[in-house]
Backbone:
């Protein structure tokens, strides 16, 4: 259940109207939202019950000051983590209903994954900071093979994060800050793990291989695009990109067949725009199965090695270090 902030505000003496919750149902006085989410692509989160970017701002907080949850988080964190908290953003595209994480670099741009902003123009993407400021963008550059994207904000931003391509050894403790699953902040939450190995990801047979870390840790949909740090530092050594949700090819094809089948019992539902949609029973079963698969947590995820980001920035003549 959501935690209500009861009692008078310390400055104005009026009752709090904010709330703090990571639950799917968020409630506050005179403000009620139902937010249902499920995963899409390699870790972005799709909103089933759609809400506008204005609604996201309202559902996070109604205050122009630093949200109380962010202040609590900053007060409870050491300096390296404070820098991370202040440099991490919730990335959202209303057009595709995709949500992920991004982080600011010293050049003033924000880094995220390509699959988080896939199908969106720069004008359709917004970022929300831990202090609840909304950013819009003037430019979007993507690299589909590396699964990276660079967003250039309309206004300047500052970051104290360091991009570091030092050698990272197995058993190294790493962490990320982000906005997994239904957690929409505005402050990010922490996930911790260890470097467990490496993967040579390849988008297709004609694409060059991309070096990725395998992380033994809880990386969830919505963490995509977040910075991977060596624990206890503000040094970014990777970009979170995926979680492992193992499934056989047979089961994947079965779910796809259910999703494409339009025969059988028919139902009518209403989408987030108020439009009536007809769907077969098998189609909603496929949707639910895919939703449950994305929620599976086997404590293994992947992060793009920082050398790939450094090369991407250089190709676009951006000095991010």
Residues:
């Amino acid at each position: 259940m959501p935690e209500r902030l009861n009692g008078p505000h310390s400055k104005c003496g009026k009752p709090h109207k904010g709330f703090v919750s990571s639950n799917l149902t968020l409630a506050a006085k005179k403000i009620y939202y139902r937010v249902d989410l499920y995963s899409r692509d390699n870790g972005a989160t799709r909103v089933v019950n759609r809400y506008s970017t204005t609604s996201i701002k309202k559902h996070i907080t109604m205050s122009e000051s630093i949200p109380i949850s962010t202040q609590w988080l900053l007060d409870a964190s050491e300096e390296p983590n404070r820098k991370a908290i202040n440099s991490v953003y919730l990335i959202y595209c209303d057009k595709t209903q995709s949500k992920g994480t991004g982080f600011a670099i010293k050049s003033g741009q924000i880094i995220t994954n390509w699959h988080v902003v896939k199908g969106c123009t720069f004008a359709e993407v917004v970022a929300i900071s831990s202090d609840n400021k909304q950013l819009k963008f003037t430019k979007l550059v993507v690299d589909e093979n590396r699964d990276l994207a660079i967003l250039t904000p309309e206004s300047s931003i500052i970051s104290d994060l360091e991009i570091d391509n030092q050698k990272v050894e197995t058993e190294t403790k790493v962490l990320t800050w982000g906005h997994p699953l239904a957690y929409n902040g505005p402050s990010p939450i922490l996930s911790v793990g260890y470097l467990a190995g490496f993967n040579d990801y390849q988008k297709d047979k004609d694409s060059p291989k991309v070096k990725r870390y395998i992380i033994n840790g809880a990386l969830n949909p919505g963490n995509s695009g977040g910075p991977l740090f060596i624990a206890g530092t503000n040094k970014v050594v990777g970009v979170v990109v995926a979680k492992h949700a193992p499934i056989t090819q047979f089961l994947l094809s079965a779910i796809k067949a259910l999703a494409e089948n339009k025969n059988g019992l028919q139902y009518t539902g209403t989408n987030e725009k108020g439009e009536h949609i007809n769907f077969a029973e098998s189609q909603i079963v496929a949707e639910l199965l895919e939703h449950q698969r994305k929620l599976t947590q086997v404590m293994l995820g992947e992060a793009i090695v920082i050398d790939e980001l450094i090369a991407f920035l250089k190709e676009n003549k951006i000095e991010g270090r």
The longest strand covers residues 189-201. The helical segments are 53-60, 68-75, 79-87, 114-117, 249-260, 281-295, 306-315.
